Amino acid sequence: MRIYRVKDYKDMSRKAANIISAQIILKPDCVLGLATGSTPIGTYRQLVEWYNKGDLDFSEVRTVNLDEYKGLTEDNSQSYRNFMNQNLFNQVNIDKKNTYVPNGMAEDDAAECARYSGIIRALGGIDLQLLGLGHNGHIGFNEPNDVFDMEVHCVALTQSTIEANSRLFASADEVPRYAYTMGMKAIMQAKKILIAVSGEDKAEIVKKAFTGEVKPEVPVSILQMHRDVTLIGDEAALSQI
Ligand code: GLP
Asked: Which of 9, 40, 115, 141 has a CA-to-CA distance to 195 between 20 and 30 Å?
């Protein structure tokens, strides 16, 4: 694993954007696995800036997102589809037809999970997967469990995730209780993984994740088994390792 220890959120964002843009330049039709949350916002902003300068071309890029809340329509301001449109897709020359996010309004969970797995398979897997990290060790919405969930699945969010994510909703009651998420198989089969962490509040889980035992109670710890992981963390988030 490669670790970049950077000063702060801004440096983390620039470094992550550097790696993503290198991927796009090396393989213009690459498949990017993308994440939501506060962590990647600065990274997307930096990519948009470089696109506006003429340094990046997204016209052939394909993207597949990690997850989506169940029960939110695409245009709901809290949906991850909306997040991606606002923060990246609407601001660059990507073809929206080449961007995939699970359908939060699907009626049949099993069918939606099978459909999304089929999309990832048809894309030929992921070249570079960007990840953030939940305080309880989740990646995507792979919550702590007694087994690693390998396939795309519909998951009941834990109370701690509902509380953590309630900051973006009017109240905790409004946070959806379920989500669709990519499983560990698609994440672990990505050729490269880039995980970004920022802030003191992530320091403890970063330590467990990368220096502790590999176990499904700490889902992110599975990354220790991947051969090409880059961790970019600011000083606060890496303060315990
Ligand atoms: C959400 C997302 C994750 C994300 C995590 C951390 O629950 N499903 O993909 O990594 O939160 O979010 P943040 O970056 O805001 O700390």
From this structure: 115
Residue range 87-109: mean pLDDT, rounded:
98
For ligand 1, atom 10: residue with the closest CA: 132
Report, as an integer, the average pLDDT of 6-35.
Answer: 98
CA of 193 relative to ligand 1 center, distance in Å: 16
pTM of the model: 0.97
pLDDT value, residue 111: 98
Q: Which of 68, 112, 138, 149 is catalytic?
A: 138
CATH for the stretch 2-125+134-202+224-234: 3.40.50.1360
Using CB atoms within 10 A of its CB, is residue 84 exposed (0-12), middle (13-18) or buried (19+)? buried
| pLDDT, tens only, 117-134 | 999 999 999 999 999 999
- Smallest CA-to-CA distance from 196 within 2, 12, 11, 1 is with 12
Give domain limits for the chain. Answer: 2-125+134-202+224-234
For residue 235, what pLDDT is reported?
Answer: 98
Closest ligand 1 atom number to CA of residue 35? 9
